[in-house]
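Q: Could you fold this chain for me?
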Amino acid sequence: MASKSHQAEAQQLYPQPSRVELLTAQTEPNQKPRWGNLLLLVALATTFGGAVSTGYCIGVINAPSKLMKVWCNETLHENYGSDLSESGLDLLWSCIVSVFLVGGAIGSLGGAGAANKFGRKACFLICGALFTVGALLFFFCRAANSVEMLVIGRFIVGLASGLVTATLPMYLSEVAPLALRGTLGVFCAVGVTGGVVVGQVCSLANVFGTEELWHYALTAYMGLILVCYLPSYLFPESPKFLYIVKGNRAAAKRELQRLRGKDAEDLIAQEIAEMEAEANAKVQTSSFCDVLRDPRLTLPLIIVCCFHGGQQLSGINAIFYYSVSIFEKAGLSTVNAQWANLGAGCLNLCISLLGPWLMAYCNRRTLMMFSCALCSVFLFTIAFVLFYIDYVSWFAIACIFCIMGYIFFYQFGLGPIPYFIGSELFEVAPRSVAMSMGSLASWTCNFIIGISFPLLQNAWGAFVFLPFSITCVLLCLLTKFYLPETRGRDPSEVAPLVSKGFRSKVK
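A: Sure. Below is the predicted structure, expressed as structure tokens.
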């Protein structure tokens, strides 16, 4: 009875247009996206405070690795009187690097429960607390002569990073108006990419990548945390979370008024009508088990997990891992090859900055198929050229060109779209579970690549890039046959299109 009275009250306070009227109003061709001051603040602060910090923790660890290995060995000798062999030290370093990925997977898995229990904004604040604890452990691990503090710090920032990738795209898409959801959804991808480059720069020997300062490199992202979290008391909670998950209609309307402006009554009424229609849907599945068992959600969940996992299995991290040696084969010195690798990272960042514009004006299906197809071609060409690189003099330059081409087209679709596609395929109740599962797939596949790529590279040589090429082909086919176009569509309109599993008809 209470639920019915709430619905009646909502209908009386916010008269709802019909479904056809609602979708027509939301997709009006002349409608311009509304960027309010609060929305812009939330988008920039959460991206720099959460996504950039995540990318920073990924990119900062590589350059000072030799210095950190020496410190680890000396510290273990002082504390325990034991010296590690070269293989033992490599194993320890693999643990230090990989524990970040383990933390990311666990953080992703916990993102669904945390997002629905505490709210989207609260998850962002939890991330800030975890990043701060990790930074403190990094900063004081040298003074305390503790390798354990370094390992625990990497695990904690991994937890924070997993929670960021699981909840931030969802938060941004839910505070944005329909016309801007794709644009804001890609901010997380751009932030992670930019953070990797910033981390690479800060860990250079000319900056903090020295024997005395490497712990400053690990901690430097705290500047972003402090600046971006200071205005967090102004951030709104997701109106959709308040309205649909918590059932607090009044609070949801207050947050919408803050985000859209009190003069945007028509837009607010449309969004409330949209949320009411979603809240009144026959089934609002929200728990992990219910989402996994619901046959209507099977296909979109497969798409989200395949996109996230395929993003990692497409070889982007392997490309950056291998690019230094490729640049050296092209005749560059080791130092110049490292700078060229940084240049590749900068190219990755520059192209990713096109993401918000691309998502606003280009269809998701077209971008994803275009990106996957060309990435597959470049990866196959890299394998071919690498195999014959010692026999043809200009193949080294051709390989560099292919690497840059792969990075260029990766950011057209394969890079940004997996981060937010779950928020466009799923309605609010099951969305947090879908985003968590996708993020878990991403971190797990990232871990698999980190562990297996060096072994496969030694065993297969140049042909190690062929599985990456095949992955891109499979993602292209999955997109062509099963991903409906989501640009300009509300999730409540998209969800029925994929509710019949692999019998669904793409429109």
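A (continued): The mean pLDDT is 85.
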